[in-house]
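Note to self: keep these together.
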Amino acid sequence: MNTLFDKIWDVHVVQKVEDGPTQLYIDRLYCHEVTSPQAFAGLRARGIKCFRPEKIFCMPDHNTPTHDQDKPIEDPVSKTQVDTLAKNAEDFGLEHFGMMDKKNGIIHVVGPERGLTLPGMTIVCAYVHSRRNGGGGFRHRYERSGDGDGFAVYSANPSQDDAHYRRRQIG
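Structure:
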């Protein structure tokens, strides 16, 4: 009998690489301001765009003030990171929940709160606390900072459309 983890894994397998990792379909990619600049730099350096940008959500959450978000960020490094995320999201055509946006918040809370994180999904975020979403019945993977560009490009197999995955039931 397969576990819930096994069922989620099995319906997301795109390709099994002999003597290598299994390629999984990734339903959502969450980006924040601290680790995403490296991923976007990798995409720019390779001259490629994000695959399925509508599945990628960006929000600053590490360097944003809890209160008074209408005021400038004083720390120059924090400000640069927040501004860079906004520019990268704009440049790559990604959904961005910036400061003062009602949808902005803690990245590992916003997904479930906004209905972006749903049971049966695979989700990637370069933020260790995001794996707490796993209690919702989906597979989450924490990635190192440099891995994000690969996920932004290869978040799904271009030969298989979303309808293919919607038809596959987790049973």
